[in-house]
Amino acid sequence: MVREVSAGGVVVRRAAEEWQLAVIEPQKDPASALTGSAKKKTSQKMLLALPKGLVDPGEKPEQTAVREVAEETGLTAVPITKLGDTKYAYVRSWGGKERVFKIVSFYLFRYQSGEIDVIAPEMRIEVKRALWIPLKDAARELAYRGEKDMVRRAQTYLTAHPEL
Questions:
Q1: What is the pLDDT of residue 29?
Q2: Residue 17's domain is classified under what CATH number?
Q3: Would residue 41 count as lying in a domain?
Q4: Considering its fold, how many domains does the chain have in total?
């Protein structure tokens, strides 16, 4: 079984009286990102996820999370703490259809600067768009169980640390 190690970020900011979370809508069909030819399905639910990606050789997971947050959302954010790891297996839909065991380390970040969804054109093959959503709704809105758990951990951390 192939092993993959990734890292990602739970990026929060305070807006008015609530916390907001930076999320991405991954590109479902990479070809449509390049050609713009995909037909929109109005009944299809938007898939939301946290920014994350593979740890590069020589890179620490926290560095990967900082890089992926910037690349996929357009934001600069400051790491606060590690929230934990998610572990799962999947079968690749490309190449030799290998079975992959994946570990993703997630970190809590505080937004520092940047405008959401202002990302490099070459990132559009991966990210359809990035947006802010209310943190209180995130566990319901995110697509993946492990990421929902990381958001709950972030909420617990923020409640325990009101000085943030």
A1: 55
A2: 3.90.79.10
A3: no
A4: 1
